[in-house]
Amino acid sequence: MTEQSLTDVALPASLTGRTVLPSDARYERVRHGYVHRGAPAAVIFPENVEETAVALAYARSRGTVVSVRSGGHGISGRSTNDGGVVIDVSRLDHVDVLDRTRRRVRIGAGARWGRVAQLLAPHGLAISSGDTGDVGVGGLVTAGGMGWFARRDGLTIDHVTAVEIVLADGTFVRADAEHHPDLFWAVRGAGGNFGVVTAVELEASETGDVVFANLVFDARETAPLVEEWGAVLEAAPRELTSFLTLMPAAPGRPAMAHVAAVYAGDRPGAAQRVLTPLLGLGPLLRQEAVLAPYPALVPVGGAPHRGQGLGATRSGLLDRVSTQTARSVADALASGQVLMGQFRSVGGAVNDVSLSATAYAHRTQNFQLLSATVPERERSLDAHWARVAPEVNGVYLSFDTRRSPEALAEAFPEPALTRLRALKARYDPENVFDRNFPLR
Ligand SMILES: Cc1cc2nc3c(=O)[nH]c(=O)nc-3n(C[C@H](O)[C@H](O)[C@H](O)COP(=O)(O)OP(=O)(O)OC[C@H]3O[C@@H](n4cnc5c(N)ncnc54)[C@H](O)[C@@H]3O)c2cc1C
């Protein structure tokens, strides 16, 4: 679909001031995502539910590809396209505390998590989202949400109490445990397949200052460091959540490991006791630990996206960080098969939730592994992943660029996949929302 043919069929009047076309000076700032580059024929910015429904009807009437975008950080989900329509909900970005006593908040799907953190902090509240303040509410809250308090608080979706969504036929629905419970279940893990989420209600957590530690190690001995990090996390109390990022050696420096760790409490003595075992992971190059308000952990950037991220990724959930997994990742980094490896701790409160409570149905694993490279080296990535695969127990699709039936089956183990497909047939029979992972 070209710009000409889009404008031939007039935009509904309510959208004319809301739409950016390729001829517009603003187009360069809105065409791409963080990872994926795009050349859409139109980017529409609805400002309310009605305009969202009109934008969707318009895009459908054109027979174009429809992408839904909140923060534009999709790795698996492609929130831009070539020649189609992008419905960008970033102007639906309100953050309201509905009931401080019960910690109930309502957030527009287009808000970014860093701003959410800033606006909730004065109320002594926070929602564990992810490690990046610019990630959007809509994309994360429809998939999972592995954040800085994952082991204390669970996933972001575990705090969602209601979703407001425009379905493929334009109907607006509020789904919660009593109303449309099937849809409520599906959106919390596979939401990108079911409509345009406009807002969510969540139960936030009481959170004041927390201890944030950043440790950088010489990782020449990568495998033992990785294995030990896993052991420390398994033994740690739930207040500790940590992400371990591994970078291969580069000219002038050895392989390095960055351990980011959050102690979700404000008592420095207790934090020190919990963090100290991490100091022994290897030769320490740099260390810092600060008592900080949660918004400082998810700063807001706001630069336009350029499609700059590592575009080929694999995700695997792990029960443990075994010797075999640690060795495979270390070898892949040393050989150049992958350019970045990242482990995240999950477990803890994530695993208190029943397997059938949400479409995200991984409630026994303790770690998440992400391996990434550039698309041109995807075959090397696959060779590495074949070695890791026997240890993998499930996939978090937000971190995986595969679109194969195998990846889908690992992401939604039965009976979740069959239930999702039945709901897809009911709520989106024409597969309008096909830009995330192919449920059908
Ligand atoms: C730098 C970076 C750091 C990250 N860190 C974390 C992390 O710490 N923890 C974690 O769990 N994940 C993390 N992610 C993954 C991230 O959560 C997902 O990629 C998520 O989809 C991004 O949300 P978004 O709204 O910014 O994405 P977008 O690109 O806007 O959307 C991605 C996809 O989500 C769906 N979607 C988006 N908005 C809506 C909506 N309103 N209604 C329905 N469907 C929608 C669509 O299918 C879309 O294609 C990170 C990603 C990046 C790039």
From TrEMBL:
Which lineage ranks, top first, belong to the organism behind this chain?
Answer: Bacteria, Bacillati, Actinomycetota, Actinomycetes, Kitasatosporales
Species of origin: Streptomyces akebiae
Entry annotated with the keyword Membrane: no
Q: Which cofactor does it need?
A: FAD
Signal peptide segment: none
PROSITE patterns on file: FAD_PCMH
Flavoprotein keyword on record: yes
Q: Which residues form the FAD-binding PCMH-type domain?
A: 36-207
This protein is called FAD-binding oxidoreductase
The text of the family note is: Belongs to the oxygen-dependent FAD-linked oxidoreductase family.
InterPro entries cross-referenced by the UniProt entry: FAD-bd_PCMH (IPR016166), FAD-bd_PCMH-like_sf (IPR036318), FAD-bd_PCMH_sub1 (IPR016167), FAD-bd_PCMH_sub2 (IPR016169), FAD-linked_Oxidoreductase (IPR050416), Oxid_FAD_bind_N (IPR006094)
Its keywords, alphabetically, are: FAD, Flavoprotein, Oxidoreductase
User: Which domain of life, per UniProt?
Assistant: Bacteria
